Amino acid sequence: MSARTTDYEFMAKAIALAKRGRYTTDPNPRVGCVLVKDGRVIAEGWHQYAGGPHAEIVALNQVDDARGASCYVTLEPCSHQGRTGPCCDALIKAGIARAVVAMQDPNPQVAGRGLQKMCEAGIAVDVGVLQQDAEALNPGFIKRMRHGLPWLRSKLAMSLDGRTAMASGESQWITSAASRADVHRLRAESSAIVTGINTVLVDDPLLNARVDFEVHQPVRIVLDSQLKMPSGARMLQQPESPVWIITTSPDADKKQALEQAGAKVFKLASTDNTLDLHAVFSLLAQQQINQVWVEAGATLNAALLDSGLVDEWLVYMAPCVMGDKARGLFHLPQLDTMAQRYQLVFNDVRKIGPDLRLSLTQNK
Q1: Residue 363: partners with Cβ closer than 8 Å, 6 or more residues away
Q2: What is the distance between the alpha carbons of residues 221 and 277, in angstroms, rounded to a whole number?
Q3: Which of 44, 56, 189, 295 is catalytic?
Q4: Residue-wise pLDDT tens for the chain (364 aa)?
């Protein structure tokens, strides 16, 4: 059945509603819902936080009688009992006549079962209206469900000549206040912020999202194969969100000291005392991490580039020159010929204050 013109309009409204949960729903997906009767919106809702009512329930709770209405929802209504009851059952009970669903839920616990249940109850179901827009709401949730990995975005800041810090390590600030505000907004969208131990030892960062709106603060994660993390690190003094350390070290005393300081330590197996990045991010997916924001130095970013795990490289470029002795974006001493170079593709270029923000994906 071809979608009616109004289907697109109502679904666009549902997608706009879903975006309101951009900073608070983790680890759940962002979902919006609109109830329509006789061609007009009678209720709307969006999922606000994990454990809270789903978008469909929020909308249904606004009306006394939803019989005969159409439900426009950005993700297939759930059919399983989680922290809340199945939404498809609530829609059936409410007497919804038609369900317009942007996309099937990639969660194997749902995966078409909610759609089937509504069909069997006599609800007319249409799927695929503005599907690409709906998928763009939840890249991390979708990738975690389909591939067992979170969606990764690595952020870098550089000068016009591709430098990230002076030879001394001084790097504050290469980019403008506008770019830094943009970074904090994007941090706030993320489930976790990942960095390497060298960045912690040099910069002692907080790794939080400093924004002026409500946010579910990302988990702060340090990749630290040898457990060099100082128990007095600033992020451990700020308990606003968990600090996880991922290591290969068997040192029980260091582990205990860091856990007493408030960190959670995950040990991964290794034959050469280095972290396998695929194993790291598989672990994060198992911990319900949907979307990862990486802020790291040249060594970790080179390893990520070589792994092909990054979904988006986000490079902030400032109109300044820092010279030959300054540090570069990637530590890749093994590259000797043009044939060995890594090729990336521009997705988007936009101006942020005086800087440029470059969005790239890697040819794999």
Answers
A1: 342, 343, 344, 345
A2: 13
A3: 56
A4: 445 668 999 999 999 999 999 999 999 999 999 999 998 999 999 999 988 999 999 999 999 999 999 999 999 998 866 666 788 899 999 999 999 999 999 988 777 899 999 999 999 999 999 999 999 999 999 999 999 999 999 999 999 998 988 888 777 789 999 999 999 999 999 999 999 999 999 889 999 999 999 999 999 999 999 999 999 999 999 888 999 999 999 999 999 999 999 999 999 998 888 899 999 999 999 999 999 999 998 899 999 999 999 999 999 999 999 888 888 888 888 878 888 888 999 999 999 999 999 999 998 6
Q: Angle at CA 48, nearest 5°, toward 128 and 56?
A: 45
Q: Which spans in the chain are helix H?
A: 5-18, 55-60, 87-94, 113-120, 131-137, 139-147, 177-188, 197-203, 252-260, 277-286, 298-307
**Of 54, 108, 61, which Cα lies nearest the Cα of 86?**
54
Query: Cα(354)–Cα(174) distance, rounded to whole angstroms?
Result: 11
DSSP reduced 3-state for 117: helix
- Residue-wise burial string across 123-143, b where 16 or more C-beta atoms lie within 10 A, e elsewhere: bebbeebbeebbbebbbbbbb
Q: Are strands 124-127 and 151-158 parallel, antiparallel or unpaired?
A: unpaired
Dist CA 270 CA 110 (whole Å): 35
- Residues in CB range of 254: below 8 A, 6 or more apart: 227
Q: What are phi and psi of 19, to 5 degrees?
A: -65, -20
DSSP-derived secondary structure letter, 246: E
- Residue 207: CB atoms within 10 Å: 26
d(CA 135, CA 145): 13
Residues 204 and 169: beta-carbon distance below 8 Å: no
User: Residue 340 carries which side chain, given as an amino acid letter?
Assistant: Q
Q: Is 214 a catalytic residue?
A: no
Name the pTM for this structure.
0.90
Q: With 0-12 CB in 10 A as exposed, 13-18 as middle and 19+ as buried, what is 313?
A: buried
